Amino acid sequence: MLLLLLGIVLLHIAALVLLCVSTIVSTWVETSGSSADLWLNCSTTNGGSHCDPANTSEWIQAVQATMILSVIFSVISLFLFFCQLFTLQKGGRFFFTGIFQILASLFVMSGATIYTVKSADWVPEAASYGYAYILAWVAFPIALISGFIYIILRKRE
Amino acid sequence: MLSFIALASVLLVSLASQSEAIWVYTGWDRHALVGSEVRLSCSFFSWRWLSDDVTFSWSYKPDNARSSISIFHYAGGQPYVDNKGPFRDRLEFVGNPQKRDGSILIRNLDYNDNGTFTCDAKNPPDIVGRPSSVRLLVFDKVPVRAGVITGAIIGSVLGLVILIVAIYFLMRFLVARRVLNLSVSKMEKGKKGKGKEGSQQRQMWSLFSPRGPGPVRHPRPVQ
């Protein structure tokens, strides 16, 4: 039972870390010599690197908002898990925890989808997707699975 | 003692001359769409009463020019607008000097109107002060400021979630209270019907009632 609990918590923390890294680190698209993410466009010209704030179009702000919301919901879900662990009756389900984790995964999916669809507007043609973008897509199924596990898990003793 | 008086008088004089300065206020910058109009506001604060010789003057310096030209002047109760320069027929005085307001309105904006507008106001004898400048930025579509939509989305979603959770808990509380009231009223009917069980019902009621004196621990013998 303890092993199961540990495994679930580790899965949740893994999803949370992926979400955080993907939101903060600056490599959603990469070209040779510049990288861009949700917040900055950085380019390394001969000598140093120079960062500009990102284009302020509505869609990139929507992506920023959904990524931040997914991180917030995942944190709330972790907190609720520990609360419910000690206050739930025997046989009860971690309903709230699962709901918030599933919401977090839905938000990360919508954020990554919006970015994919609208990236033609603000990304140059020769750019390839960076690892932070891939992490966002990986975080989505991990968070979803974690949320479903919470919903079907029943509390024992 | 003498040095103290000298120091105090110097301080008073400097304060007095400071308080004789006029403070001119305009905005910091203005954003406007091509073809629309913009109102550039200018007002001042002065320790003196408003004099009849109050003057306002506006001058304009284009973005990549080195000198400015004068485009508006108000003196002796009369406004004089630009009739030869880049703003002829587009400038209008919409201020109210009696209320210390020297604002101008520029119509039909163009990209060439990007630049810095400086307002200088004088209220004799209060004439020492710095003119204040406002930058005009003309866009073809007004850009969304960074972070506005982000904050709006985050705030609305979190507010919605909090609202749903609050409603859920409220419903649970109300349903629980309704169930409690129903069971209490059922027990009251039972108490009236069967008098023998009265004392036991009263004891059970005090166990359930939330405003009672607390649960009764020791049972009372049934007569």
TrEMBL record, chain A:
Keywords associated with the record:
Membrane, Signal, Transmembrane, Transmembrane helix
Signal sequence residues: 1-26
Keyword Secreted in the entry? The reply is no
Topology with regard to the membrane?
A: Multi-pass membrane protein
Question: Which Gene3D superfamilies does this one have?
Answer: 1.20.140.150
Pfam families recorded:
PMP22_Claudin
Query: Which InterPro entries does the UniProt entry name for this protein?
Result: PMP-22/EMP/MP20-like (IPR050579), PMP22/EMP/MP20/Claudin (IPR004031), PMP22_EMP_MP20 (IPR004032)
Q: Which domain of life is it from?
A: Eukaryota
Q: Please classify the protein's predominant subcellular localization into one broad category.
A: membrane
The places in or outside the cell where this protein is found are: Membrane
Where is the chain membrane-spanning? Answer: 62-82, 94-117, 129-153
Which family would the database say this protein is a member of?
A: Belongs to the PMP-22/EMP/MP20 family.
- What is the protein's name according to its record? PMP22 protein
